[in-house]
# Entry
Amino acid sequence: MTAKSGSTGLEYAPRGLIGALTPQANTTVEPEFQILLPEGYGMINARMTSPKNTINARLLDYWATLDQTLDQFANAPVSAVAFGCTGASYLAGRYEEDMLVARIGEARGYPFVTSAIAVTDALNALDAKRVGLVSPYHADLTDASIRYWESRGFEIVETSSTFNADSDFHPIYSLQASSAYEALLLLRDKPLDAIVMLGTGMPTLAPIASVGDRDGPPVMSCMLCLAWRTIQAIDGKAPEAGELMSWLKGSDWANRL
# Structure
């Protein structure tokens, strides 16, 4: 599904308004969206909340209560909705994810873009099959992510972990970009078609900007792919390698870091 073309008539989002869905304690989605979005696009946010006690249980709860979360946007003229929670897609699986995307698009009348499918589209646009992962997750969620990516047709060749088990706040949202960068460097010399920095909660834009013009496999993140693919959905464009590479090099957004 593509968004309706033309001006929105909104002062701060004349080219398109994104409804972003963010996990309840995530401190990264909104700031990285604000850096990534091209001029003329804006976003509003709805928090996905859950009383569950574990990360995995909360992720599944976000999925189960998605329609109620979308109702927070009321009659705001959103052009597309961006689901900023990759972990939920891993646990639900590709088939349930595909059905959910189709159902919401049909019922709500706007494109519904998940971060996991956005990464899938980016890897396919680059014809990337051998993939390395920088993972901020605990071991079982990393394993679930590998199964998910393999179900999408990719070979996961290497993984590098940034999981912060010692955080008093959150093992992912407490991460610094410097930790993500160090984990990224461990994969740069590997024989890979692409590197994916996982999770919408791990700060990734500074590391991506640092390597964007260097030799080596292209580096992307869930947040960068989510922003790229949502803008494309609003503009009615199909995934395309040339425009994606401009995003990966930070041509439009790196100067806003």
Remarks:
- Residues 16-114+223-256 form a domain with the Rossmann fold fold (CATH 3.40.50.1860).
- The chain has two domains: 16-114+223-256, 119-222.
- The beta strands are 16-23, 41-48, 80-83, 112-114, 130-135, 155-161, 194-197, 219-221.
- Residues 94-108 form the longest helix (15 residues).
